[in-house]
Amino acid sequence: QALLYARGTYGHKPKVPVDADRLYEAAHKVMSPKAWGYVAGSAGRNRTDKANQDAFSRYPIIPRMLRDVSRRPMGVTLFGEEYASPLLFAPIGVLEMAHPLAEGAVASAARQLDMPMVLSTQGSTPMEAVAAALGPTKFWYQLYWSSSDALAQSLVQRAEAAGAKVLVVTLDTHAMGWRCMDLDEGFLPFALGQGIAQYTSDPVFTALAADRVAAGTRSLAPKQAPTLAAVWALASIIGHYPGKWWDKAFSPAPRAAVDTFLDVFPCPHLTWHDLAKLREWTRLPIVLKGIQSAEDARLALEHGVDGIGVSNHGGRQVDGAVASLDALEEVAREVGGKAPIIFDSGVRNGADVFKALALGASAVLVGRPWLYGLAIDGAQGARDVMARIAAELDLTMGLAGVAGVREITRECLKVPKVG
Ligand code: FNR
């Protein structure tokens, strides 16, 4: 905040809009209909996505006066590690739909801010390369548990070896939600070979795909990707977004790998008992992402997980589900401080982060906003969006009379307590 205002905003009109609604509109303009539908779309009639964002209006902040707020430390400790702020880049897959540099651009943004990234299993760049690009900036790894345990184990162990600090296991996406925009466009990015770089760089997956790979492919080979990325970047600079043909032409993985991915993708058979396997595979702290009820939070703790991820995937899975923020307080009561709560879904600005922290979150993942920034202005855009959310959180604390993130409590909000 100090940086934003001390240097002055006068005369500087940013390329990436500050306002969340204008950011959304600006991203819409630069993305192809398919990419936009995939990124901005949610499940069914988008009711959960809307509910996620609307919920924040029901928890007003009570500003307090005449408190010394000249220092407002933002640091938090999570799973024994120090972090500069409670903000993280949420795991988002298929980033090449927003920008050809994908995780490379986000890693650059994250490194500039020293703000951790949660790397997606549906990544467009092998995790080892992203870890290298992040340098000293910490990262967590998000697992989609495929129907092959050997593959899931391999991904987890690669992440641990690459230096991940936490394993985030996403539970709510054992199948894709009913996404009307994608269905109308006839679009599934993975079917084009997008977002499967963690798999194609994995020895277990490669073995699974060997037969099909040997059979050959009609898709473009991965070695052509840099050339296409350069053409894309040039076209973007001269102001022509080549999204339509890009979506058709670009398939970074051989057809056989795509088919193998589609084979191992769904895993609806998983139950609480399977979590024990994770403990055998890794020593990393485990966070379950997708918890939306006190009962599941209790089960998670009973099964020995280290953190609770309160999330409904940005409303992309179940249409008409409970707003993630409404689930948060109930979950926080159940957890009772026994484990960190990592919140996401619907966060659009710094005041939203403040409210989530007040309702019991230990840290907050931001999803679509930085993705929109990435689509508009690459690394700089993603960086700007996250820097502003942090700046607005800092300013909100100051103006609400709260001297740091650790001081944000339930008493900062005017709402009846649950129960
Ligand atoms: C996601 N999300 C997601 N989550 C995850 O665990 N693994 C993933 O690969 C992805 N991929 C993904 C792609 C896209 C395009 C979106 C929009 C979201 C969900 C993400 O981590 C987070 O839960 C939501 O984005 C949070 O909601 P908001 O901030 O977008 O409202």
UniProtKB/TrEMBL annotation:
<dbReference type="InterPro" id="IPR037396">
    <property type="entry name" value="FMN_HAD"/>
</dbReference>
<dbReference type="InterPro" id="IPR013785">
    <property type="entry name" value="Aldolase_TIM"/>
</dbReference>
<dbReference type="InterPro" id="IPR000262">
    <property type="entry name" value="FMN-dep_DH"/>
</dbReference>
<feature type="domain" description="FMN hydroxy acid dehydrogenase">
    <location>
        <begin position="12"/>
        <end position="418"/>
    </location>
</feature>
<dbReference type="InterPro" id="IPR012133">
    <property type="entry name" value="Alpha-hydoxy_acid_DH_FMN"/>
</dbReference>
<comment type="similarity">
    <text>Belongs to the FMN-dependent alpha-hydroxy acid dehydrogenase family.</text>
</comment>
<dbReference type="InterPro" id="IPR008259">
    <property type="entry name" value="FMN_hydac_DH_AS"/>
</dbReference>
<keyword id="KW-0560">Oxidoreductase</keyword>
<protein>
    <recommendedName>
        <fullName>FMN hydroxy acid dehydrogenase domain-containing protein</fullName>
    </recommendedName>
</protein>
<dbReference type="Pfam" id="PF01070">
    <property type="entry name" value="FMN_dh"/>
</dbReference>
